[in-house]
Design a protein that fits this description.
Layout: E1 9-11, E2 14-16, E3 20-22, H1 38-46, E4 52-59, H2 76-89, E5 95-101, E6 119-120, E7 130-133, E8 136-139, E9 144-145, H3 148-168, E10 172-176, H4 182-187, H5 202-205, H6 207-217, E11 225-229, H7 243-254, E12 261-265, E13 269-270, E14 273-274, H8 284-288, E15 295-298, H9 303-311, E16 317-319, H10 321-326, H11 330-336
Parallel strand pairs: 3-4, 3-16, 4-5, 5-10, 6-9, 10-11, 11-12, 12-15, 15-16
Antiparallel strand pairs: 1-2, 7-8, 13-14
The protein binds P-hydroxybenzoic acid.
């Protein structure tokens, strides 16, 4: 059955050797200035047997960052330091995309360049979740509401990051519109109570992401731009009374743009956590059906459930985050039915080699 995962697939005009993706995973191994490291190159080289590698969330500006040591794509030094990392990820024929990220209100004054609270569509704080600071979990702050000029500036930052991604050798970019980050904050009415053209109706709440797509489309062809959504998740307080209509409207609006793919996080996943099923969940199949283009489904899948999604025509590609962290040669193990190693929580978000590049391979990269 899992043979289905090894059929080639075309994405953005590129032929991918298989349908298995390494999804974007925050690992906090960049330098403090957001430049990628040699250790990151080693990590991606180990996992280069995926058909598609989507590198970890990469911020478009210092204001867009929340966690320590995440990489960026806003400076010349970052572009130069990404090149060997991208080359390593491409070393086995995978397509390699950058995930462009702005966290909005999920940041904290302690990591904002001006030391003030972060920006968001509206001045509504996250209350049900805590911020992961280097000194433990602390409450989020009330964010500052973005001005119209502030929004335009972020649109430009995404376009610049897309140009930088192309210069660094990435084949494409993914917009991180999942998990309650900035795009999700604009989309959901619980975090967006603006009364201008960016808030109110669904059409208005879709405006920011569409403006970013227009701007990014000037930097690279839209068939090399994917988008990631977590339609069933209210992680970090992104709530809306009708998420099904909201994300369905977005998927329909995206169709004429001919994007590289739609990337759906499965219900039951909340950010980095598995939370089980929810009666309000929107099955990935429901949104996949609305999409004219390729669909990626990620989140808690096994080789069997993933192959079934491909066989049923729900997904064209399938992602495995936690399994790929613990099994750098995951496609090889799937193909041969080999045992899978388990994930260790130590070293997930900090440190050096331990928990990052020290998982055993059957296949030496
Ligand atoms: C995390 O670092 O916990 C994290 C980062 C990006 C996500 C979700 C979770 O999209």
């Amino acid at each position: 059955m899992s043979e289905r995962l090894f059929e080639p697939v075309v994405l953005g005009g590129q032929v991918l050797p298989n349908r298995i993706i390494l999804p974007p995973l925050t690992r906090s191994r960049a330098n403090e200035d957001g430049t990628p490291t040699e250790l990151m190159a080693r990590y991606y080289r180990q996992r280069a047997s995926a058909g598609l590698v989507i590198c970890e969330g990469t911020v478009v500006s210092p204001q867009g960052a929340s966690y320590a040591r995440v990489p960026g794509l806003y400076s010349r030094e970052q572009v130069d330091a990404w090149r060997p990392v991208v080359a390593a990820a491409k070393s086995n024929g995978a397509a390699v995309y950058a995930q462009l990220w702005h966290v909005g209100r999920q940041a904290h004054s302690s990591v904002q360049p001006d030391g003030l609270p972060p920006f968001a569509p509206s001045a509504i704080p996250i209350v049900d979740w805590k911020y992961r600071s280097p000194h433990g979990r602390i409450p989020f702050e009330r964010p500052r509401e973005l001005s119209i000029d502030g929004i335009a500036e972020i649109v430009d930052q995404f376009a610049r990051a897309a140009r930088n991604a192309r210069d660094a050798g990435f084949d494409g970019v993914e917009l991180h519109a999942a998990n309650g980050y900035l795009f999700d904050q604009f989309l959901n009415s619980g975090s967006n109570v603006r009364t201008d053209k960016y808030g109110g109706s669904v059409e208005n709440r879709l405006r920011f992401i569409k403006e970013v797509l227009d701007a990014v489309g000037n930097a690279m062809p839209l068939n090399r731009v994917g988008i990631r959504l977590s339609p069933s998740s209210s992680w970090m307080d992104v709530t809306d009374p009708d998420k099904k209509s909201l994300y369905s409207a977005l998927v329909r609006d995206l169709n004429p743009r001919g994007l590289s793919y739609l990337h759906l996080v499965e219900p039951g996943i909340a950010g980095s956590l598995s939370v089980g099923s929810d009666p309000e969940a929107i099955p990935s199949a429901d949104l996949a059906e609305l999409s004219d283009g390729p669909v990626i489904v990620t989140g808690g899948l096994s080789a069997e459930t993933a192959a079934a999604l491909v066989a049923e025509g729900v997904a064209d590609l399938v992602g495995f985050g936690r399994l790929f962290i613990a099994n750098p040669d995951l496609p090889h193990r799937f193909r041969h039915g080999s045992d899978l190693a388990g994930l260790r929580s130590a070293g997930l978000y900090s440190g050096a080699e331990a928990g990052y590049t020290d998982y055993p391979h059957i296949l030496t990269p």
